[in-house]
């Protein structure tokens, strides 16, 4: 029997900025930025000898004003490392919106963390995000996403990490990412099958505005919900590409109006200005308009 993916609350994730937890100035600056979410990184961007200091920075940061209108996600070190367990203890104490797991290779990586959170009586609202950045992670991405199939599952979002994936596979960075597209689309298929979000990988050269624009357009066309960012200069372009355009909003509103007409009652397919429109397009249109309203309602940073 087919299972319908669980209904989840919708969150804007067009622009998800990664901020090193060791950088107090960058942490404070995140309050004034117009990104949708902030990843507070304890992993790759923090040297081993600075991990403890970075954790204390996050304690002070969470004791201060909240990030208005932004999700807060803490990226921890792997539980197999000497830092993972203490990072997870910090997560259970601070209660961010989500914990981001690095280098997820197997569904057990997700379910083990979920069990630990449950054992610590962490509220179910704290979600799990998973980095897909290894060959095994790509090969197992369907099974990993499947752990999010139930309404009580914490898994909420998959984040592609191409830097590690390129390193482990030997694929060279190239414009268009042609050799990586099949792997990226595997991630998209997996999240769409189980009602999750997927975020596209970082673009390393924040000075290359044109290249970033092209890659954002590609990611949006593939079906990603947004993009992980490394610099505030990338936020505006990500918000523009992964948010609905004025033309898309107008088209969606026209579809909604067409199905609201009394003549469309009981019909699954209608003719709108010479185009055949199905009710599945109505569902898509309503979701797009809802997203546009959420964007409009956001407080300016």
TrEMBL record:
Domain of life: Bacteria
Ranges of residues in domain HpcH/HpaI aldolase/citrate lyase: 14-232
InterPro entries to which the protein is assigned, alphabetical: Aldolase/citrate-lyase_domain (IPR005000), Citramalyl-CoA_lyase (IPR040186), Citrate_lyase_beta/mcl1/mcl2 (IPR011206), Pyrv/PenolPyrv_kinase-like_dom (IPR015813), Pyrv_kinase-like_dom_sf (IPR040442)
GO MF annotation list: (S)-citramalyl-CoA lyase activity; metal ion binding
List of residues binding substrate: 75, 133
Cofactor(s) recorded in Swiss-Prot or TrEMBL: Mg(2+)
Keyword terms, alphabetized: Lyase, Magnesium, Metal-binding
A GO BP annotation: regulation of cobalamin metabolic process
Family label: Belongs to the HpcH/HpaI aldolase family.
This protein's name: CoA ester lyase
Annotated organism of origin: Rhizobium lentis
